[in-house]
Amino acid sequence: MIQFGIIVRNLSSSSALQSAIKNVTIIGGGLMGSGIAQVTAQAGQNVTLVDVNADVLSKSQKSININLGKVAKKVFKENPQEAEKFVTESLARIKTSTDPVSAVQTADLVVEAIVENIDVKHQLFQKLDSAAPSHTIFASNTSSLSINEIASIVKRKDKFGGLHFFNPVPVMRLLEVVRGAETSEATYKTMMEWGKSIGKTCITCKDTPGFVVNRLLVPYMAEALRLLERGDASARDIDIAMKLGAGYPMGPIELADYVGLDTTKFILDGWHKKYPEQPLFNPIPILDKHVAEGKLGLKTGEGFYKYEKK
Ligand code: CAA
Ligand code: NAD
Known about the structure:
Elements: H1 2-12, E1 23-27, H2 31-42, E2 46-50, H3 54-75, H4 80-92, E3 94-97, H5 100-103, E4 109-112, H6 118-131, E5 137-140, H7 147-151, E6 160-164, E7 174-179, H8 185-197, E8 201-206, H9 213-229, H10 235-246, H11 252-259, H12 261-274, H13 285-292
Parallel strand pairs: 1-2, 1-4, 2-3, 4-5, 5-6, 7-8
Antiparallel strand pairs: 6-7
Helix pairs in contact: 2-3, 3-4, 9-11
The structure holds acetoacetyl-coenzyme A and nicotinamide-adenine-dinucleotide.
């Protein structure tokens, strides 16, 4: 409920939280991209959501519809007509596309939320750099890659930064705003203002591995998987321990399933390659095995736990 307090305040005072950004293109319509599309549209901005896979886009539209319904039910609980209007109008602000080049033609801001792979991100941004208007700001939602490295292939390095959201995006109140070495002051300020305009509390991060949250959270999840792998405790008991003993809303193994075991592995593998001397980033065989078997967590219906298919 506290989390929704922020959304309510933001909706009711949206005129006080104006941003220079009106048109936002979000590339990647998966777990994160669909959440970013939702919060942007519900704050009154125009969204184009892009994915290489048209099926992903229709799945995203369905989940956005359901999640907007949850928000509407709380914000307009006394007024079902307003609730319906809010959902319809927010949905109408979201266009979808499978063509990133045409989708950035009118963008003020591009937020990239595709697979956590530097080569794939480079290919995308190189294409976008020549297609987008010169004023367009580019941002990556990367969990673990360096913003400077991602930005290295674009010409507009001053208009490139990190906008790191948290899962589930409509509920998590934080946005990490990452300043790369060449991010201009104007770009940084616009990113901070935009984050506020969509109801997030922004913190400023340097371009360091995992910024703030993931530098703490990923080694914590990794250590929990190592406990499990050694047979020190069951997954269920590890999760209960951290929920009841430390007050976390989810245990670390549940959280790894929730984030996606593939994403968790991409993060750890990338850091291990870059910092081989850091034992916290060492590969975890039990994680690698699950990913190799396609058990990626909640999104595939099985990870360390099994989930009912939605
Ligand atoms: N959209 C809108 N509303 C949503 C929603 C969504 N996608 N998902 C949940 N909600 C709402 C529910 O309607 C519910 O609202 P009320 O409490 O008002 O009824 C509320 O959020 C709580 O949801 P649930 O009752 O379904 O479940 P819960 O109480 O168990 O909470 C949770 C679910 C919010 C996910 C909570 O377990 C939690 O905070 N978990 C930790 C999540 C976390 O740590 N995220 C960060 C991951 S790391 C990351 O994202 C960075 C990275 O780079 C990997
Ligand atoms: P996901 O697998 O759910 O979605 C990624 C989507 O990108 C897929 O639908 C895929 O089809 C699409 N895609 C891949 N290449 C593409 C391309 N070239 N053009 C357009 N679409 C393309 O992944 P996710 O969990 O949403 O993660 C996306 C990004 O967000 C990653 O960088 C990840 O590290 C980061 N992130 C993830 C989390 C999390 O909890 N999962 C949290 C914060 C940040």
